[in-house]
Amino acid sequence: MNDRVVLHGIGVSSGTAHGLAVRITPAAGVDTNEPACTDVEADGQRVRDAFSQVAEGLAARAEKAPEASKAILTATAGLARDKALVKGVDKQLKKGMGVTAAVHEAVEVYAGKLRKIGGYMAERVTDLYDIRDRTIARLRGLPEPGVPELSEPAVLVAHDLAPAETATLNPETVLGIVTAAGGPTSHTAILAAQLGIPAAVQVVGVEEHLEEDTHIALDGGVGEVIVNPTETDTQELEERSRRRARALAGSSGEGSTRDGHKVKLLANIGTADDARKAATFDLEGSGLFRTEFLFLDRDSAPTVEEQVETYTQVLEAFGDRRVVVRTIDAGADKPLSFANLGEEENPALGRRGIRLTQAKEELLDDQLEALALAHRKTNAELWVMAPMVATVDEAKWFASKARGYGLPKVGIMVETPAAAIRSRQVLSIVDFASIGTNDLSQYTMAADRMQGELAHLLTPWQPAVLSMIKETCNGGSKTGKYIGVCGEAAGDPLLALVLVGLGVSSLSMAPKKVNAVRAALRLHDMSTCQQMAAYALDSWTAEDAREAALNVADPVMKDLL
Ligand code: PEP
Ligand code: MG
């Protein structure tokens, strides 16, 4: 029996899981000890075979993949069959290069050509590198890199995961996700919560403990991971689940505090499929539709017609419930190949969000037109907001455009300290604001949200972040405008109470988090929420702020966290 090891990370998607740990394999790279080529024909055949195995593997995965990733997998499989690529390899073999080095070099040459052509072709370079890594792994007799195909449900363990990789995971076979790196507000963590897969990030050292057939247990609520759990461990994990279920029992209906102060409980979604799933939950609509998630895999901008179709599906899914759509927020860790403005030194501080659509205005125009058409078709309760607003001018630019298309309710996200500090002025332009605590924490604390090691700075319990939220709510009450929260903070049941105490009227989160937040609200009066908020604001550290709120809270809250 292998050693039992308990590790602590950050829980980012609640729920418990245990099962076989499956590693996400890193790329192997060129074999530095391989022999030089002496038989071009034989080596060429080996490489051809490896390419076709890779192509077949990808095509088979495309068959089973969700609709959004089918096209990309099929296109990548096509690249692995490209004749020019094979010829390029022969050329390198003739120079005497070993097989893996020849593949590496041929791919580099080919990638250079694609980059030169630019546009769509240049965007295929990432796929080409994927082919390279898979082919080299085959030639070396190693497993192909990336998320393996799972024959039985398992817990995935990786150093880190890209949002695009996470988006393609199947919650039916992926029991849980554990990463050694990654941050709690990274888009990977957000996607895991969206998919309802229990997940913990920043579980430092987890990879070193994995061997063949290692079992692993995970509590995605508190971020605890046990490698080689005992039977008692898994029983204790199940007991935690039961306690939580008891605390959640009977959580239903509209969100409100115990004394009847209404708080709308909404879902964060990224696709029409998410909308259909979220709409089956007991919640009051969607407070954040991250529209850029629709386009992460795409090589070209979607047409107005395509967008109308998707937005109509989303609005219809929610019927007469509110849907807050965020216009495209590309850039930083969500690059869109068709909205690329070139390399940037600091993408998170660069032309992302509204700044990108100011440079590529047609993207926003198409989107607003499509939203207006979908609204006309459905007459749904549609609210539209822009991401990453920092100035009154940006708010004006967006509001006049959106109103020009006849959109009824126009708002902004408060994600920058600039917008929070000047919320009275910015809010006077628009109808509402939604606080994006993920980016607001990143920019208030000057800490990259992708940098898991900075999680202690990124927590929205940081008093400086709470002050920013308070400032935003002050602006809201002075202008009589509505303030919601749609960052990950909204889904933390204890923090949700503080947010309500600060003056927030709606909370939007992964649908699976709604029950716990609703149960937490029902346990407390508005005056208790306000007291928690005052204590948290008065605290000097993030830990003290959380502790202060927990001290005032009902003891059952411990089972909800
Ligand atoms: C946020 O920043 O809090 C937010 C909701 O937007 P995103 O996480 O998509 O950047
Ligand atoms: Mg954001």
From TrEMBL:
One GO biological process term: phosphoenolpyruvate-dependent sugar phosphotransferase system
One Pfam family matching this protein: PEP-utilizers_C
GO cellular component term, pick one: cytoplasm
SUPFAM superfamilies with a match to the protein in the record: Enzyme I of the PEP:sugar phosphotransferase system HPr-binding (sub)domain, Phosphoenolpyruvate/pyruvate domain, Phosphohistidine domain
Cofactor entry: Mg(2+)
Domain PEP-utilising enzyme C-terminal: 256-522
Positions with a binding annotation for Mg(2+): E415, D439
Catalysed reactions listed for this entry: L-histidyl-[protein] + phosphoenolpyruvate = N(pros)-phospho-L-histidyl-[protein] + pyruvate
Domain spans labelled Phosphotransferase system enzyme I N-terminal: 8-124
A GO MF label: phosphoenolpyruvate-protein phosphotransferase activity
Binding site for phosphoenolpyruvate: R290, R326, N438, D439, R449
Enzyme Commission (EC) number: 2.7.3.9
Function of the protein: General (non sugar-specific) component of the phosphoenolpyruvate-dependent sugar phosphotransferase system (sugar PTS). This major carbohydrate active-transport system catalyzes the phosphorylation of incoming sugar substrates concomitantly with their translocation across the cell membrane. Enzyme I transfers the phosphoryl group from phosphoenolpyruvate (PEP) to the phosphoryl carrier protein (HPr).
Sequence similarity: Belongs to the PEP-utilizing enzyme family.
Name this protein carries in UniProt: Phosphoenolpyruvate-protein phosphotransferase
Taxonomic source organism: Corynebacterium glucuronolyticum
